Amino acid sequence: MTNLPPDPPSSPRSPLGFDEFIAILVALGAIGAILLWSIGRRDRGFDWVGIPGLLTPSPSPTVTPTLAPTPPAATATPILPLPPAAPTTPSPEALVPAPTQPQPFAGIVPVPAPVPQATPTPTPEQLQPIAFVDVPENYWARPFIDALSARGIVSGFAGDYFRPDEPVTRAEFAAILQAAFDQPPGSGEQAIAFTDVPADFWGVPAIGSAIRSGFMRGYPGNIFRPQQQIPRAQVLVALASGLNLPTPQNPNQTLGVFGDANQIPNWAVEQVAAATDAGLVVNYPETNVLEPNRNATRAEVTASIYQALVRAGRLEPIQSQYVVQQQQ
């Protein structure tokens, strides 16, 4: 039998030495101390200050610690302490607003509200009358026509014609009154149901305004006769009625300035006398001839309405030799 060499013995396991056991315990104790210390300071955030071997704690009034040597600047950068974490939940005092004056939203500059400016009344020099081709410079009613056309009270026809010598219908006269005295249409036109004024007639608003303001009236039988040409006496009666002019104490004496005063209808005597006394009568070419029953022309109506506006304090007088002056 061949003798074989014996198997090599296994490496003997060295038992844990007492010094190594003590080192492990010390290491575990240090780790536990660090964990306990970190948990105790979590409200202020994790801080490396005080950990042995990293940074030396700040000096206190009673203990003067030994500062660790500062490493060279070329090889290491010192670790600075982190600032305490800001609280995420505001304190109760922060939730109560301070008693201060209200401030505008950041970035918005308050702009004062604009103060409405009054529209100035245009002066006579700023008003531009319509240059009617059939109203010459020396036409007797040119100053009255220019003044009212510049204010939009009277207008002309196509081609800048005024047709000053044409007659005026009652509906047209009502429209001029509405424009002259700023009478709003209102809501009562439907209540004025003249049998000869259709609901779709162009002059319904103006007729309603003239009736309500007291300038005009209808005829018996609930008719208005809108297309009837208006006589001169009716123009003066309408203006005297709308302006509430007082009747002179002696109307016949006032009407004595007219050589044809006896042609004035009886129903119109007092109002025509009142219009004459107030300076509303404009006669061309002779001031002492009234012709009360003749149809009024567009020029004559314009002149008398201008004088009515003067009487109402709306316009300044125009120097004209054709305005009838009351005898002194």
From TrEMBL:
Pfam families: SLH. The keyword Nucleotide-binding does not apply. It comes from the Bacteria. The keyword Membrane applies. The chain crosses the membrane at residues 20-39. Residues 128-191, 192-253, 255-319 form the SLH domain. Keywords: Membrane, Transmembrane, Transmembrane helix. PANTHER family: OUTER MEMBRANE PROTEIN ALPHA-RELATED, S-LAYER PROTEIN _ PEPTIDOGLYCAN ENDO-BETA-N-ACETYLGLUCOSAMINIDASE. This is S-layer protein. The lineage of its organism: Bacteria, Bacillati, Cyanobacteriota, Cyanophyceae, Oscillatoriophycideae.
